[in-house]
Structures are given as C-alpha cells and as structure tokens.
Amino acid sequence: MANWKARLRGGGVYSIENVPLMVVLVGTAELLLAAAVYVSLQYAGSPSVLTRAFSIAAAAVGSAVVALSMVIIWNNSVVKPAEVERCVRQVPWGGDEVVAEVSCGNGLALLRSATRLSYGLAVGFEASAGGRLAKSVPEARGVQAGLCSADSRSLPLRDGSLDVVFSGFGMRRFRRLADRMAEVDEMARVLKLGGRVVLMVAGDPAAAEVMLRRKGLVEVETTLLKSFLLFTTRIVSARKPAYRP
User: pLDDT for 173-182, tens place per residue?
Assistant: First the structure.
C-alpha cells in the first residue's frame, strides 16, 4: 500500500482527480489493517472479547475502505478514460481542428482529441491550472497542445475561433444558474459556424439541453453513459449552425 500512496502523490495513476482524498483513504486502510494484524498477533495466546472485537472491526472497516479505494481508482483510471473516448468519437474529425476543453482538470478529452489531429491545435482551460496536465501533453505527438489558466465564464478567445469544445462536468462546479449559463454562452461564442460542443453532464441533462438550444445550437442530442460506477452520466452534444440565421 505504501507504493500506492507514492504513486498517487506523484500522479502515477492516470486521471485520479482527488489525489489527497485517495492518499487519505489508502493510508487509513493501511493503518486499520495493520492495527488488526498487530492486535491479533499481540494477543493471540489469550485474546479477550474486546481484542477480538477490535481486530474484526478494524479488519472489516479497513477492507471496506480498500474496496472503496479500488472502485474510485477503477472508475477514474479505466472507466472514465473509456467514456471520454466515447465523447471524442462523436466528433467527425478532419485532423486540422482547433479544439479546447473547458474546465479540463486532467485534460482527458484534450489529450484524446490531440491524437485525432494531424496539424491542429488543442488547448485546455482550467481556472486553477496545475502541473498534472502539463506532464501528459507530450503524449499528443506532433500536435500543438497546452494548458491555459482561465475562467470558463470568460474565455480568452475570439468569437468563432474553435471547431470543437469539450467540457467534462464543468457546469457542476457552479451553484448559480447564471454562472452555468455564462459558461455555455462562452462555449457557443467561441465556436465557429458548424462547430461542435460536447458536454459530460452528471444527473438530469435537461438544463444543459435548454441552454444549448437557447444559444441557437442545433442537433442537440443526449446519450446515456452506462459504465460510470458512482453516478449517472450523460453526453450532451450540439452543433452551431453552419450559417447565420
């Protein structure tokens, strides 16, 4: 387990988003299981009811925490990348697109998009841009890719400058409807005519659908992602009309 903690701290497990939480969970499980083994061995000759109860409880809780940690790691490292790949496949790639991922986090959609490009540009926007994405950008071979610190409600881009915009659960960061609407407004603003926006939405997608239609986007479609383990997720995609009405 010490190995897991080192890998988590160093970002060795790809796409784990809440690394401090995972370190705490794995460390807690390690302590509980170690305590259960120690007490069992220490009082193996004459175990009391109390020591037996403590050993059983510590082992049970430690095992439960291990199981929870494994589910989260599986969901983030295997399931989520696979579903982000499904999002990226929804775009009819030409290889020369200019792509952005808004509220990009680890930049999964950004990096998956970059593999579809021959000589395009892929940029990730994150309000608190850290180093996690920067370590992964070289995987996008031969394509310009980078990370920019920016508020998703005010993107530093010209109108109609992007072919594709992705956002993985970006809107859930905002409690106020006005903030979520501002984010969608920005996505629609920076899209070229004929450009596409693809959102990953947790829970009910109705609000996202309404906001996209309100901005004049067409072909609004929702797809259920069935393989997320911890919550129901949907892909909501739409296209900006290729001509101005």
Answer: 777 778 888 8
Look at residue 157 and give its three-state secondary structure: coil
Q: Residues, the chain, total? A: 245
H or E segment at 38?
A: helix 19-42
How far is C-alpha 39 from the geometric centre of its chain's CA atoms? 40
Express each pLDDT in 23-61 by its tens digit. 888 888 888 888 888 888 877 767 778 888 888 888 898
Nearest to 99 by CA among 209, 197, 223: 197
CATH fold group of domain 90-239: Rossmann fold (3.40.50)
Report helix, strand or coil for 226: coil
- Model-level pTM? 0.70
Question: H helices within 123-205, ranges in order?
Answer: 132-136, 177-190
pLDDT of residue 10: 38
Domain spans of the chain, in order of start: 2-83, 90-239
Query: How far apart, in whole angstroms, are the C-alpha atoms of residue 86 and residue 188?
Result: 22
Strand ranges across the sheet with 218-225: 144-149, 121-126, 98-102, 162-168, 191-202, 233-239, 218-225
* 129-147 CB burial, b ≥16 within 10 A, e <16: beebbeebbeebeebebeb
Largest CA distance in the chain: 84
Consecutive H or E run containing 112: helix 108-114
